[in-house]
Write a structure and sequence with these properties.
421 residues, Protein-Tyrosine Phosphatase, Chain A, six-stranded mixed sheet, 16 helices, Mur_ligase_C_dom_sf, EC 6.3.2.17, nucleotide-binding, Mur_ligase_cen
Length: 421
């Protein structure tokens, strides 16, 4: 870290617990109580869980609410280039001074006892949101749902569950029903849940949990639907049909994420104009993002440079479909992944489209796979692969006329965005 006041306090907070992830809410309740329980004073909360699409869905919901004149706070993770991205206030990302102040306030209230980095920084976000002049708060789950640090609001305005798939098995369980059960832990008694299209075994678990809580559900493919039709996006529910442009975020999966966002916005009474803005104005970095300026783009020359942070098998399928929509060019992947991920599962859908993979390790990440390990995983799914020391070195090994997709991890995406200014 660079040594700003925020960086220094974040470094101290990292040392308060021996584990990066330790799923329980006991430490959250203790610290929130010491802070005066700011979670009780939040603007109405939209709580979002799911395996894929959480970030894109929250970005669309936020864009729609803002276009309708609402002031919105949003909490997301992980960050890409700098921590401030996690805490968005109505007037923009939290400032350096405001972030430093709430982090230090949480540090003092904690008194040096064990608490994870995510827990104490989540408390800082909740403190900042409780003191904001906002109409809504969007909270994105960090991991799972039931025991996630964000799951401390008794009565949110809405809960949202995006598509559930296999990921983080070491924390959430090995089967889809187990993982869906953890995601369904954000459902609250009597609170409407907006549920994206799900595999049957995931939907069954979510519906059973909702029934036990008398929580009404609005389910994709049942109560509402979204699909692409002749180069447009169609959405319909009990209120009628919306004929919209395709999402600004690229890919068929973004049509589905858009549908989930629209179902949430319609439940909140957002206007048709706000709904259209959700689809056309949402911005979410490192989700099939084309890089257009910066040192890496200059070094790329005529190469077409794209960035994505997806990292599981479902993300690989969605990414392959999205890249397949672009005009045909030779495709080279620059890929780095963490050792907790299903590398082959992520790469298999991309192997049919890509000409070559250039494997890198993720700078500064202890849990990174080595370039050699990533290259071996690529070769195991039939994708020719070589190793490179850095993203910049890999880029220079790509033919001048190719499309380059940097992918495999949000941590790699963050490193690239920092390197690219």
């Amino acid at each position: 870290m660079s040594g700003t006041s925020t960086d220094l306090v974040l470094q101290r907070l990292m040392s308060l617990h021996p584990k990066i992830i330790d799923l329980t809410l006991d430490r959250m309740w203790r610290l929130l109580d010491a802070l005066g329980n700011p979670q009780r004073d939040l603007p109405p909360v939209i709580h979002i869980a799911g395996t894929n699409g959480k970030g894109s869905t929250q970005a669309m919901i936020r864009a729609g609410l803002q276009a309708d004149g609402h002031r919105v706070c949003a909490y997301t993770s992980p960050h890409l280039a700098r921590f401030h991205e996690r805490i968005r206030l109505p007037d923009g990302l939290i400032t350096e001074q405001a972030l430093s102040d709430v982090l230090e306030e949480c540090e003092r209230a904690n008194g040096g006892v064990p608490v994870t980095y995510f827990e104490i920084t989540t408390c800082a976000a909740l403190l900042a949101f409780a003191r904001s002049d906002a109409d809504y708060t969007i909270l994105e789950v960090g991991l799972g749902g039931r025991l996630d640090a964000t799951n401390v609001v008794d009565t949110p305005r809405l809960t949202v569950i995006t598509p559930v798939s296999i990921d983080h098995q070491q924390y959430l369980g090995d089967t889809l029903p187990e993982i869906a059960g953890e995601k369904a832990g954000i459902l609250k008694r009597g609170v409407t849940g907006i549920i994206a299209r799900q595999a049957d075994e995931a939907r069954d678990v979510i519906e059973a949990r909702a029934e036990s809580l008398s929580a009404p559900l609005s389910i994709g493919g049942q109560d509402w639907d979204a699909y692409e039709d002749h180069g447009r996006m169609a959405y319909f529910d009990e209120h009628g049909l919306l004929d919209l442009p395709l999402p600004a975020l690229i890919g068929a999966h973004q049509v589905q994420n858009g549908g989930t966002a629209l179902a949430a916005l319609r439940a909140l009474g957002v206007s048709d104009a706000g709904c259209e803005a959700a689809i056309t104005q949402a911005v979410w970095p490192a989700r099939v993002q084309r890089l257009r300026t910066g040192p890496l783009v200059e070094a790329a020359g005529d190469r077409d440079l794209w960035l994505d942070g997806g990292h599981n098998s479902a993300a690989g399928i969605a990414l392959a479909e999205a890249i397949g929509r672009l005009p045909a060019r030779p495709l080279h992947l620059i890929c780095g992944m963490l050792n907790t991920k299903d590398v082959s599962g992520f790469l298999r859908p991309l192997a049919a489209q890509a000409d070559h993979l250039h494997a890198v390790s993720i700078p500064g990440e202890a849990a990174t796979l080595t370039a050699e390990q990533t290259a071996q995983a690529a070769q195991s799914v039939g994708l020719a692969a070589t190793q490179a020391e850095t993203v910049a070195a890999a880029l220079q090994a790509v033919p001048a006329d190719a499309r380059v997709l940097i992918c495999g991890s949000l941590y790699l995406a963050g490193a690239v965005l920092r390197e690219n200014g």
